[in-house]
Every structure is written in C-alpha cells, then in structure tokens.
Amino acid sequence: MGIVDMVTEKMAQMPYPEAAIKDVDLKGMGFDGINLLAKVSVSNPYSVPIPIGEITYSVKSAERLIASGSIPDPGSLKANGDTGLDVAVKIAHTALVSLVRDIAGDWDVDYLLELGMIVDLPMVGSFTIPVSYKGEMKLPTFSELIKGKSEPSEASAPSAD
C-alpha cells in the first residue's frame, strides 16, 4: 500500500458534517411571492468552528424547478456540536401559476426542497453538505385571502431524505 492509498483511505474514514431539514413553514404571502422558512440542523464533528461559504437552494414541484437561489456567507458551524440555521426561500407567484393542475386538485403544492451547504473543511477543502426535504404546502383559499386571514397555514412534511 502506497502513501497515496493510505492518505485516501484515511480521508474516506474522516467524519464529515451532516445536515437535516427539521421543518419547513409557510411564513407568508405577499405581492411578490410566497416565503418559506426551512429549519436546518447541522452537526460538526470537528473541534473547530467551520465557516459556511454559501447555502444554495432549489425548490421543485411536479418535476419543475420553481425557485432557486443562494445565501452567501451565512455564518459558521459550532465546534463539536449542532448548529441551527434558518434558510429563507422565496417562491414567485408566477412559478406557482405554472403548477395550476397540481394546485387545483387539492389546493396544495407537493414540493422537494434541496439545499447545499458549502463549507471549507480542514485538509479536505471545499465540501458541499447536501440535504433534501419532501413536503406539501397548503395554500390559502381565495376566500381566506379576501377575508384577510393573517396566519398562513404550515407546510407539512411527509418525509425528510
């Protein structure tokens, strides 16, 4: 076994940060779109804080991309522990209009939220922590919008991947 093989084997055995989306809430609706808030928990097995360079996100529904974006420099992961992150996602109304068939049946939107947290790991370099979440957004009815219902319904979560 050569030195390159030994280094490769040791790198493969290193612990890596892991992430899970704990919850996604529908936080509000405005003239520009719908706002979601994803609650993410990230565990850092290292004894030093790890900077997060960027969080990228995409939201898909009916196999169509309905939103994507990034959040630059959202902070750092705590050393030897879990860090809670709030990831805000905005979906334009025009994207939801393209899903009329899905919405018309039960007035909800089935979606897949995919996040990528890009961190800089010691000895490894740039590393993306992928995490995804399948859920369902219950949209307010027209009568609720007209009556001015102020409390949006929550997005539910059948499963987190």
UniProtKB/TrEMBL annotation:
InterPro entries: Lea14-like, LEA_2, WHy-dom. It comes from the Eukaryota. Residues 19-136 form the Water stress and hypersensitive response domain. GO terms for cellular component: cytosol. One of its GO terms (biological process) is response to desiccation. Belongs to the LEA type 2 family. This is Desiccation protectant protein Lea14. It comes from Sesamum radiatum (Black benniseed).
